[in-house]
Specification:
- With 449 residues, this protein is of the alpha/beta class.
- It has two domains: 2-234, Mur-like, catalytic domain (UDP-N-acetylmuramoyl-L-alanine:D-glutamate ligase, 3-Layer(aba) Sandwich); 244-412, Mur ligase, C-terminal domain (Protein-Tyrosine Phosphatase, Chain A), CATH 3.90.190.20.
- The protein contains 16 helices and 15 strands.
- Strands 2-3-1-4-5-6-7-8-9 form a nine-stranded mixed beta sheet, with helices on both faces. A six-stranded mixed beta sheet has the order 10-11-15-12-13-14.
Length: 449
């Protein structure tokens, strides 16, 4: 029945069926979670907490409309909670999701510049997120970040009960202190109703305090004992690709923050790396999204920023050559760059050693940086530099199948000037050849940026 619902019934009909089904689920508490970062961690942690008190349904991996339709349809009478991650990626993209979900509890974590190009303004982007709060029933409760100015503005317009979380005066759940110094995980002190609680986690990075506070806010909104919710937090493991720790057999430790990499989100993981205690710190950076302005200046700035906290920096992908401009001189080998991930893997295979702490920051859809880890355990075969697969490589059946992509790129650490293109005469090939030549000359490694 599950496969029939997903594969054989058109989405618009599935939506109507799920909408009728939703009307029968008044006994279930529906939680809608949105924000520009931290949605998945908050969703998974919230579901983890709630599952200690009753059957809980939740979204996995996907957060667009079809995922919301499926999760509502598969919520049954025995479920007590349903937790849904809600994505906003353009004007109106939340409308049908919130109309179907009808959340009893709405969470807005923070509002950054994700998908800014689709909205054209931060005000429009914030208005889209606000729809989750506007969809609350009269008895609904909003869980809002008091330290985010745009989220706070939404709360000031909200006529529902609000549980504020964050630092400072006015927070219902007030963060007193957050400590995260690798190898020690995140520990927090939280004040609620004039009582201080210690919250221990298995997360890393002080910025992960925000999902923890939001999830505890949901527990309070659901009338659950805070002490028991805090105990559940201590057992929670981070989701894949969200400040996830992976320790290799050779003693190299990777911090996987490779789900996405909008420009505005770089500071938090770099702060973690800077505060960490390790023999050597390495930062591997892939595609940086949601940024504007001169790309050459941006990547040069990113590289200099990363250099303040890392001993070695490796840029991978289309913009690698722009970051190299931050080198001090031609002998500066602390900054490396590779257009192809296979070459980056070769370099890291030889360079990394026991005691290294390696931050992976990139977009899994654009970079698939997890291959840098997987290849160290068992040599992989798929080295595609462009891939449309929408999930992490460790779940891909193509991972160990030979890839047609072959790299002829020399290690950029040994290059000073890009090679000139060589065109071999092929006779009169017509317009197709001219188009290919234009594409070749547009290669970022062959022209001045």
């Amino acid at each position: 029945m599950k496969n029939i619902f997903k594969k054989l019934i058109p989405l618009n009909l599935r939506y109507s069926i799920a909408s009728l089904h939703r009307r029968r689920l008044n006994h279930v508490t529906f939680i809608g979670i949105t924000g520009s970062a931290g949605k998945t961690t908050t969703t998974d942690l919230t579901a983890n907490i709630l599952s200690n008190f009753g059957h809980c349904q939740q979204t996995h991996d996907y957060n667009i409309l079809k995922a919301i339709v499926n999760i509502v349809w598969h919520t049954r009478k025995h479920h007590r909670y349903c937790v849904a991650e809600l994505a906003a990626y353009g004007p109106g993209t939340l409308d049908m999701s919130v109309r179907l979900l009808k959340p009893d509890i709405a969470v807005i974590i923070l509002i950054g510049r994700d998908h800014y190009s689709a909205y054209k303004s931060m005000e429009s982007l914030a208005a889209e997120k606000e729809k989750v709060v506007l969809a609350l029933s009269p008895n609904g409760i909003a869980i809002l970040n008091i330290n985010d100015p745009r989220v706070r503005s939404i709360g000031e317009r909200c006529n529902r009960r609000i549980i504020w979380f964050g630092e400072g005066v006015g927070a219902t759940l007030r963060l007193i202190e957050a400590r995260s110094l690798w190898p020690e995980p995140l520990t927090m002190l939280v004040d609620y109703e004039d009582k201080t609680y210690e919250v221990r986690t298995q997360l890393h990075g002080t910025h992960m305090a925000i999902p923890v506070l939001a999830s505890l806010g949901v527990a309070l909104a659901a009338d659950l004992p805070l002490e028991k919710a805090i105990l559940a937090v201590a057992q929670f493991q981070p989701p894949e690709g969200r400040m996830q720790i992976v320790t290799g057999h050779d003693g190299v430790v990777f911090i996987r923050d490779d789900c996405k990499a909008p420009q505005w989100s770089l500071n938090a993981p770099l702060k973690f790396l800077g505060q960490a205690k390790a023999d050597r710190k390495v930062a591997v950076i892939g595609t940086i999204s949601d940024s504007s302005g001169d790309a050459a200046k941006r990547y040069k700035r990113y590289c200099r920023q990363t250099r303040e906290v890392a001993d070695i920096i490796v840029f991978v992908g289309y913009n690698y050559h722009r970051a190299l401009r931050a080198r001090l001189n031609e002998n500066d080998i602390a900054i490396q760059g590779f257009s192809r991930i296979r070459d980056a893997a070769t370099y890291l295979q030889a360079e990394l050693r026991k005691g290294d702490l390696v931050l992976l920051k990139g977009s899994f859809k654009a970079d698939h940086l997890i291959r840098l880890i997987l290849n160290r355990t068992s040599p992989i075969q798929c080295w595609k530099d462009q891939c449309n697969v929408g999930f992490f490589c460790d779940r891909c059946p193509e991972l160990y199948k030979p890839s047609p992509a072959i790299s002829f790129t020399a290690p950029i650490g040994l290059q000073t000037v890009p090679a000139a293109p060589v065109v071999v005469g092929m006779g009169n090939t017509g317009a197709r050849f001219l188009l290919s030549l234009k594409s070749l000359l547009r290669n970022p490694g062959l022209k001045k940026s």
